[in-house]
Design a protein that fits this description.
heterodimer, A: 154 residues, alpha+beta, Ubiquitin-like (UB roll), DNA polymerase, domain 1, B: 811 residues, Aldehyde Oxidoreductase, domain 4, seven-stranded mixed beta sheet, five-stranded mixed beta sheet
Chain lengths: 154, 811
């Protein structure tokens, strides 16, 4: 165990954890966050995605020690049900999700990509989401929501 | 599949001990095959109040399960007019929570915001069985005994009676506006529901004879009310089972066998003794787990624990598995036999013979299954993402834990989309067994490998078809014989061995019991597994019972024992059967050089054009509704009316074709047709759907946007399964254990355009299922599209690039 300072959703947490612990378990177990989810533990599916310094990162394969000191954002940090972030609002408007396990994967990955590539084509967005999996298969609706968000970026 | 009535299962002493502790002798257990222990507790024994009684007493709400005929088990009204409703159909990501709330608001005529619904908590909610089989709409949206619709309507009727008595008028003199009952000609006389019955019990039986309004009068149902949970999902607020936190909770991980059917020989606890935070190594027969203070400690311990296992089963060679299936001891079932099929085939102008093969698929939930259990000396609480808090969970937990089921509370919490029997039930048992062993609340989340290697897979199929055609190319005889493999299913108190955990904990799967004869010809007109194609008449002694024109029919099915666990996977058996039927009819249409849409329509009978009454006998199903879906999908798609394959496509490069497939789900539970444009890259073997039109008819539409989401997701899920999903194994173990070895369709394959068309039946037709209709046709859509584009018929699912290339080369 060792002392680690973690900046999550605008707050700083001083924690005493095994530095090799995947960031995901610290977020869900020590900080009781519900946005990032355990899907595979292998970095293959995106369910655990968080945004660190503008990049969508797989928290299930990221040791907590390597995330220390950086700004980490989860779905909770983007917005609230009362005041959702525009990309969250787009996903509400389009009624995208079924079970919602893929919500961090799709929203965080799309946001990080579009914020850097606001004029990306449909094909480029699909490629950016290449390793984001949804097994309820809401991809059609997700693309509509992403398009709505992208429209607001212009 | 398996018949075990004459087989005595063998249980370990631990298992028998647990049975005794649960208050069940072994004899009673076996004799009752579970029935003895799934009976409901009495209110007095459990010491529980119904929701209505609890509301009246101002007590924390506790409910009973044995009084489902009592209105107070479903609806309670508080002083402030809040409607508390309790239902037993779960939210699996389909929107059922929202739409059940709509139902209560609609039939009590209150604003939606006033309804507070609780679902699937054994301490509060009526037992409505398993949330499965596209039964949530039929169960709760049709007016009948023990439905939420009947409960709300009974309450509404009683409220009006009470108001009429209060004001000395008849119910016809009353009008209801937003939960206020008003005397029509004297608005000063009015009373709210809360004033009438707030905090009191109704003490009434549900009345399924009450006349209620039909879908034409719906104001809240039939509209696209947004789902309640989506704002919480997108902002990370929703509590899933994996998010449940209980004071004192620790983390468990299971250690599954390394090979199929391997059993524990020994466990070396010293191998993990130095792991910080380790609470305990738990071994119960071949069930092995570790518990630690923190999750990562438990994961490390589970990876490092040294366990010696037996070798286990030598698995059949996957390369020749379908041949192996045909050689196994089997059960025989004759679903239909008009006894003239051989004769008709012999006299047919042409016989089309085709064998269709479909592999094991998995549910492959995106989130690894997770649950939390808090097991005490003689009681337990389990937070589970199960489809069945009562049957699968509570009754099985009683047997596994040795605790009387009335002392067990199972509370549903949202899980990863399950699409059937994924790891949700097994992981709930894992958590409970570990919690019992350590005496503390335990959370377990499976690893990706444990989720994928040990879930109950969708069944593989071998499907032989022979179609006899007359000189005009029309079908005059249909012979269908299929083989499938099964082991296990949903668990219950009578069958804890149906999923991996119960088996590992000591409950042996009963021996397979093959048939000794050909089986009697079924008299049932049911078609629960879609064994019967839409195009046969299903002629019985009392006349036709299905919507097809083909009266010479033979449908034979066989079951064999699967080496792997199997269980319901979205559209169980129906996807596989529909694949075979909807492809072989395309083969017949191509032989006859007839447009596949026209060919389907000519083999389905119309309802009586004057009366609108179905001509499919007393089955109540409608050929016209099936045909309407086919026509609508074709029209919205812009179908080219021509024979398949498409003329003029080159033999290299990228080509496109059109495809149609349709089905009547479960023979009666929802109509659907899909038309699609399919693209085939003949150089790489990559297949895509560019666009599709879905037409469905599930009776009255409760929430159009919700059903559209089901249709879209089902279609894409069916496409993913057909484009490359296949459970794989070597000589001893499952090898499809992550998203590399079990590939799923992704965004980067290119998201097709989807147009969705629901036929809304507001004319008194009952509500039907909508969760599994579109997925059922998709494997056939792809195979038919590949054929139309390339002229090559692929009869073995799936259609991965390698398999498509191989088929193209072989042609």
């Amino acid at each position: 165990m060792s002392a680690i300072s973690l900046k999550v959703n605008g707050r700083t947490y001083d924690l005493d954890v095994d530095p090799e612990t995947p960031l995901l378990y610290v977020l869900t177990d020590d900080l009781a966050l519900r946005g990032p989810k355990f899907g595979c533990g292998l970095g293959q599916c995106g369910a655990c995605a968080v945004i660190i310094e503008g990049e969508a990162i797989r928290s299930c394969i990221t040791p907590v020690s390597t995330a220390a000191g950086f700004q980490i954002t989860t779905l909770e940090g983007l917005g609230s049900p009362e005041n959702p972030h525009p990309i969250q609002k787009a996903f509400i408007d389009q009624q995208v999700f079924q079970c919602g396990t893929c919500s961090s994967g799709i929203i965080m990955t799309a946001k990080a990509f579009l914020d850097q590539n606001p004029k990306a084509t449909k094909g480029e967005i699909e490629q950016a989401l290449d390793s984001v999996i949804c097994r309820c298969f809401v991809q059609y609706r997700a693309m509509n929501a992403i398009s709505q968000y992208q429209g607001g970026l212009a | 599949m398996t018949s075990n009535k004459t087989i005595q299962p063998t249980y370990t002493t631990d298992a028998l001990d647990a049975l005794e502790k649960a208050g069940l002798s072994r004899r009673t257990f076996l004799k009752g095959t579970g029935a003895m222990i799934v009976g409901f507790s009495t209110v007095s024994a459990a010491g529980l109040l119904s929701p209505g009684e609890a509301a009246a007493a101002g007590a924390p709400l506790q409910g009973s399960t044995d009084r489902r005929d009592q209105l107070d088990s479903w609806i309670a009204i508080l002083h402030d007019g809040t409607i508390l409703a309790y239902a037993g159909k779960s939210e699996l990501g389909t929107g059922m929570f929202t739409v059940q709330s709509q139902l209560v608001a609609e039939y009590l005529e209150v604003p939606l915001s006033r309804v507070k619904l609780t679902i699937c908590d054994t301490a509060l909610c009526p037992d409505q069985g398993t949330t499965s089989g596209s039964q949530s709409h039929p169960t709760n949206f049709n007016h009948r005994n023990r439905s939420l619709m009947t409960a709300a309507a009974t309450a509404f009727h009683e409220l009006k009676n009470l108001a009429a008595a209060k004001f000395g008028v008849t119910v016809d003199d009353l009008v209801v506006v937003n939960g206020v009952i008003i005397v029509k000609n004297d608005a000063t006389k009015n009373v709210t529901y809360g004033e009438l019955v707030g905090g009191k019990v109704f003490n009434l039986q549900l009345d399924s004879s009450i006349k209620i309004k039909g879908p034409k009068e719906w104001k809240i149902l039939g509209t696209s009310v947004p789902r309640y949970d989506i704002p919480d999902i997108v902002t990370g607020r929703l509590e899933y089972a994996r998010d449940v936190r209980v004071p004192g909770m620790v983390y468990g991980q299971v250690v599954r066998p390394p090979r199929v059917d391997a059993k524990v020989v020994s466990v070396d606890e010293s191998s993990v003794a130095d792991i910080p935070g380790l609470v305990k190594v738990v071994v119960k027969n071949s069930f092995v787990g570790v518990v630690a203070e923190k999750r990562y400690q438990a994961i490390r311990a589970s990876e490092r624990l040294k366990v010696e296992w037996t070798q286990g089963l030598h698995l059949p060679n996957q390369a020749t598995f379908y041949d192996w299936m045909l050689q196994q001891p089997r059960t025989n079932s004759r679903v239909a036999d008009s006894l003239d099929v051989d004769e008709k085939l012999a006299s047919a102008a042409k016989v089309i013979q085709a064998t269709y093969l479909y592999p094991y698929n998995m549910h492959g939930s995106l989130g690894a299954s997770a649950a939390v259990a808090d097991v005490k000396e003689n009681s337990a609480t389990v937070w589970s993402p199960t489809q069945s808090v009562y049957g699968a969970q509570r009754s099985t937990l009683a047997v596994l834990l040795g605790i009387p089921q009335e002392n067990i509370r199972v509370i549903w919490r949202m899980g990863s989309g399950c699409y059937g029997l994924n790891g949700a039930d097994a992981v709930s048992f894992d958590a409970a067994l570990l919690s019992q062993a350590v005496g503390r609340p335990v959370m377990v989340q499976l690893t990706r490998k444990d989720e994928m290697a040990w879930e109950n897979y969708g069944t593989p199929y071998v499907h032989k078809n022979q179609l006899g055609l007359d000189a005009a190319g029309n079908i005059i005889a249909w012979d269908s014989e299929s083989w499938t493999a099964g082991k296990g299913s949903r668990p219950s108190g009578g069958s804890p061995y149906n999923v991996v955990t119960g088996n590992l904990a000591g409950f042996e799967v009963p021996a397979f019991n093959p048939s000794t004869g050909p089986g009697n010809i079924s008299t049932s007109t049911g078609n629960g597994s879609n064994h019967v194609p839409s195009y046969i008449a299903f002629v019985k002694a009392n006349g036709r019972a299905y919507i097809g024109t083909v009266t010479s029919e033979r449908i034979t099915t066989h079951g064999i024992r699967s080496p792997f666990w199997t269980g319901p996977l979205r559209s169980p058996n129906r996807l596989q059967n529909t694949f075979a039927h909807e492809c072989v009819i395309d083969e017949a249409a191509a032989y006859a050089k007839v447009d596949p849409v026209e060919y389907r329509l000519r083999h389905i009978i119309d309802d009586d054009p004057l009366t609108g009454v179905t001509n499919a006998g007393n089955s109540g199903v409608s050929g016209t509704r099936m045909k309407d879906c086919i026509k609508l999908a074709a029209e919205k798609f812009g179908w080219e009316h021509r024979a398949s394959p498409k003329a003029g496509n080159p033999k290299t490069g990228v080509v496109t074709g059109q495809a149609m497939a349709a089905c009547l789900y479960e023979g009666h539970n929802g109509y659907c047709a899909v038309a699609a444009e399919v693209e085939v890259n003949q150089d790489t073997g990559v297949v895509n759907i560019l666009r599709m039109a879905i037409a469905s008819d599930s009776g009255p539409v409760s929430n159009p946007n919700g059903i559209a989401n089901q249709n879209e997701g089902g279609a894409l899920q069916g496409m993913s399964r057909a484009l490359g999903e296949e459970v794989t194994w070597d000589h001893e173990k499952i090898t499809s254990i992550d998203w590399i070895t079990y590939p799923t369709w992704k965004f980067s394959n290119g998201v097709p355009d989807i147009s969705n068309h629901q036929i809304n039946r507001t004319d008194g037709q009952p509500a039907k299922g909508s969760g599994e209709v579109s997925i059922s046709v998709m494997a056939a859509v792809l195979a038919n599209g590949i054929f139309d584009a390339t002229g090559v018929r692929i009869r073995e699912g799936h259609f991965s690039p390698a398999k498509v290339l191989a088929a193209l080369k072989a042609s």
